[in-house]
Amino acid sequence: xxxxFKDFIMRGNVIDLAVAxxxxxxxxAVVNAIVASIITPIIxxxxxxxxxxxxxxxVDGLHGAVIFPVGNLITALITFLAVAxxxx
Length: 88
Description:
Layout: H1 2-9, H2 13-46, E1 48-49, E2 55-61, E3 64-68, H3 71-87
Antiparallel strand pairs: 1-2, 2-3
Helix pairs in contact: 2-3
């Protein structure tokens, strides 16, 4: 049983996958830093940002303004697209 597991691990595919996961995690951290420190502030120039730097827009409703905080969504989409482009 242990010999079978050792053969499975040493095939190469599992080791390649483990290396890819580690490199992918490290690359994701780099992309997150780039998006948070460079791209998000550029987007904030064109969108309304509150005092804490959250990007969003307000819509007047019957009971006051409703604020849609879309900054985190935009950041997540840009991060995903950047990682997907590099992986592809």
